[in-house]
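Let us work through a complete example step by step.
Step 1: write down the sequence.
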Amino acid sequence: MGHLHHPSGHKAVDAKEVQQLQLRLEYGLLQFITNRVT
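Step 2: predict the structure and record it as tokens.
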């Protein structure tokens, strides 16, 4: 859990970037699950 600490001056990723990542993750998960089920 040491990755939570950002060096000072280093801003956390954009909210937009996080949203994109989440969308990609969810999409990938969906694809994976459907591939496993079918």
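Step 3: interpret the result. Residues 19 and 25 are 10 Å apart (CA to CA).
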